[in-house]
Records
---
Amino acid sequence: MKIPIRNLYYLFLYAWDRFPGGALTSAGLDDSPDLPNLLARLLSSGTKRLVRRGLDRDYRAFTEELVSPRGRLRLDRMAKETTKLRGTVVCDIDELSHDVLHNQILKSTLSSLGRSPEVEKATRHELRALASRFPDVLDIRVSGGLFRRIAVSRNNREYAFLMRICEFLFWSLMPDQNGAEVRFQRILEDETKMSSVFEKFLRSFYQIHRPEYRVRAEAPAWHVSDATEADLALLPRMITDITLRGRDRTIIVDAKFYRAALAPSPFGERVRSQHLYQLITYLQHERARRDGGTVVGMLLYPQVGRQLRLQYRLLGIPTIVATVDLGQDWQSVEAELHQLIDICGEYRQPIVDGREQVL
């Protein structure tokens, strides 16, 4: 799938909550030949700003044996270790330090990316030089679970975007056989990881640009009867990618980043059945809960090959299978995304005898 570097840039900015007003014009976007160099430049540019304004600090607790008391005395350890004979005391100390988790992750990512041969030499040098600006921060081995422990507040919100980049890089970089360098996986071909980015991009885009809808991911309850609480607890969770709720309609969008929107079959290409079944389940439960208004569903893929604008009524519910061309200029991408929601907005439930009729 060929996506221009500028469009990838905007895709990540939306997905990682950097819009509106978050364009990093100093990141050397147009000079980046590919995704590894784009991410490297974004990380370098953001880290430079952090260093200029001062790295975040927090209190770190540690225990130390000292000649002069400082902090809280640990009488239990002093008695146990007979420190009086040595003329020392054991103290618990809280001290402001740069050695906090988000700085540790940032330093480790700068060092790892600085060893990647896919990144241009000058940028690699920049990344390694920036890592050296963290002398009092420990070098750690980054794991996926660490990102769930990061606490970003209003005081250190500049770290939020950088931590998103670091997490994406963590899942994208693999050590080579010798362990001396790291190499990028073909991340744009990873349908699972890119589906998550594509979904977040669409949700953020519609939150910003379609204010007439309340846009979010939802976890609707199953519309079920004759079941005990124990039985209900074993049902899987339903989580929509994007639900747009307006005054008189609900649009449920399922976003998939697949290299081919249609699946091959012995009888020719077909809509992917598992995606359609999942969307129809969401739509049926939504219709069962609503007293009125229109329910519309859409399966949305990035365009590879021909454009899709398939329109059906499945169980009486308007359903669209569509693609968006991420390879065109960005203004056209935005226009196409608006057009798709406008199409969903044109559907009305048929009215019979003054009441909405489900076909």
Note: The chain is about 35% helix and 20% strand.
---
Amino acid sequence: MREYIYKIVIFAVAIIVVFEFTIGKEISQINEKVNYFTSSDGRKEIIVSLKEEIRKANKKENYLDEDERVLIRDFILKIKKELDLN
């Protein structure tokens, strides 16, 4: 009976260690990111970085590459065609 209890305890400790090094690590990273987005400082930093990216985009002459233009144009034409049918 004593050996059975030792095996159960060792197995439980092994499961906890494996969980902490695999899934637990991922969960803690996700929690850190969520906390960053929900804090006021994190939101302010995101707003500042978005404004900076918009400024960079406004300085560019063309926003899209030729391939992106074709894809978006075809997509819009397809949506227009679908809307005209109804």
Note: The mean pLDDT is 89.
